[in-house]
Amino acid sequence: MENRGAQHRKERLADALRDEIGALLEGELADPRIGLATVSMLLLAPDGKSARILIHAEGSEAEVKETMAALNAAKGFIRHELQERLGLRRAPEIFFYLDQSETRGEKVEELLKRIKKKL
Q1: Chain centroid to CA 26: how far?
Q2: What is the pLDDT of residues 42-93, one digit of tens each?
Q3: Looking at residue 63, which CATH number applies to its domain?
Q4: Range of the domain at 92
Q5: Which pLDDT tens digit goes with each residue over 43-56?
């Protein structure tokens, strides 16, 4: 029974982290390098001490790299805000990764189309 409670707490924490980081990305970060970026997925470690955040960023390759650099530079501020907003004793360490699933999906679709044409 206790394990289900811990799992439920972890899921609630992950949802709250995703929502708060999304709100910060929507306009509360004043860095002009951050373009149109959204949280596509948040993976919380089993112990809750770290979180991997997959970011979907719009724009050219250079703009996406700038957005990711700006987010990595703002980690401390974001972590502090999460701690205060969610009333956490210790906010998890956060790591930002670029979500490339959309571009990979497009490549797979293109390859499937090529195979169909050859058949």
Answers
A1: 13
A2: 999 988 899 999 999 888 889 999 999 999 999 999 999 999 999 999 999 9
A3: 3.30.300.20
A4: 2-118
A5: 999 888 999 999 99
Written as six digits, the tokens of 37 are: 């970026």
DSSP structural state of residue 74: T
pLDDT band per the 50, 70, 90 thresholds, residue 96: very high
* Structural domain total, the chain: 1
Half-sphere exposure of 95 (CA within 13 A, CB side): 8
Residue with tokens 């948040």: 42
Residue entry with tokens 């990711």: 68
Residue type, 102: E
Under a CB-based contact definition with an 8 Å cutoff, are residues 102 and 58 in contact? Answer: no
> 78 is written with which tokens?
């974001």
Q: Which residues contact 92 (CB under 8 A, 6 or more apart)?
A: 17, 44, 45, 48, 49, 50, 51, 79
